[in-house]
Design brief:
By secondary structure, the chain is mainly alpha-helical. The chain has 2 helices and 2 strands. β1 and β2 form a beta hairpin.
């Protein structure tokens, strides 16, 4: 894998959903948002993968199964 830093997934809709503990815009946890700039490239790619999975589960209704 490349050492290039992935871009932040922030889309400017910064609103935490207290019910699920994720940002409504980027699907990151508060900890992931706070730590983003401290994470290395591999950690950032892991978070990006998790955000994609979370978004899919929320949109298809399986997030709370």
């Amino acid at each position: 894998m490349s050492a290039i830093d992935p871009a932040s997934p922030c889309i400017g809709i910064c609103q935490m959903d207290g019910g699920i503990g994720l940002c409504a815009g980027c699907f990151r946890t508060l900890e992931e948002i706070e730590q983003w700039w401290d994470y290395g490239p591999e950690q950032k790619r892991t978070v990006l993968m998790l955000t994609e999975e979370r978004q899919e589960r929320i949109l298809d209704g399986t997030a709370f199964d």
